[in-house]
Amino acid sequence: CSDASFIIPLGLAAPYAWRLVQCIRVYLDTGARPQLFNALKYSTAFPVILLSAVKYHVAHEVWRHTLKPLWLGAAFLNSAYSFYWDVERDWEISWFGQMGGAQRGAVVPSPVLRGQLLYRRPFYLYLMASNLALRLAWTYKLSPHLREHHVVVFFIVLAEAFRRFQWLFVRVEVELRKIQAHRP
What is the pTM of this model? Predict the structure, then answer.
């Protein structure tokens, strides 16, 4: 594929499109409104991918002065929303929801973890910090200038696999708590 090919962006967009459709389908089947917000999360990847693809079809000045700032904004929105969803929804750690109150004088509020934790508190803090850093790295992978740097892309893909591997521990803990809550 050449840089101007739309095969690369289509390949990048396919997993997001599949998850978007899955979320909408679950919403239609169950009426669970959080699925619409989860679908919105997946839809925020499309502007990043589209703007990356457009770089090779516009003049350099148009990209640099107009589209690159839009790409950066879309990439930040995608990473921030995905990070929020990971922490608040998937891991069920209340952090963003309590930012307006609880800790007077704190510059950054401390995440509110459950009373009973499967792992030690520093592990959750590490997971949140590494998740944010690795989410930003994944967004960087979508950057159009990386198409020539296959080694960098390979390591970013490995980092994303590692991020998802770490994510697994808290996600399993959340599901175990849900199962235990339904047992007498």
Answer: 0.80
**DSSP secondary structure code for residue 56 in this structure:** G
Element (H, E) at 32: none
Q: Give me the amino acid identity at 54.
A: V
* Helix, coil or strand: residue 94: strand
Burial code (b: 16+ CB inside 10 Å, e: under 16) for 78-106 equals bbebbbebbbeeebebbbeeeeeeeeeee
Nearest alpha-carbon partner for 55 in 122, 8, 117: 8
Cβ partners under 8 Å of residue 112, min gap 6: 93, 94, 95, 98, 102
Cα 138 to its chain centre, rounded Å, is 8
Burial profile 125-139: b = 16 or more Cβ within 10 angstroms, e = fewer: eebbeebbebbebbb
CA atoms within 13 A on the CB side of 145: 6
Residue 108 in this model has a pLDDT that exceeds 70: no
CB 124 within 8 A of CB 86: no
**What ranges do the domains of the chain cover?**
1-90, 105-183
The confidence score (pLDDT) of residue 141 equals 66
Distance between CA atoms of residues 112 and 108, nearest Å? 12
Task: Tell me which amino acid residue 2 is.
Answer: S
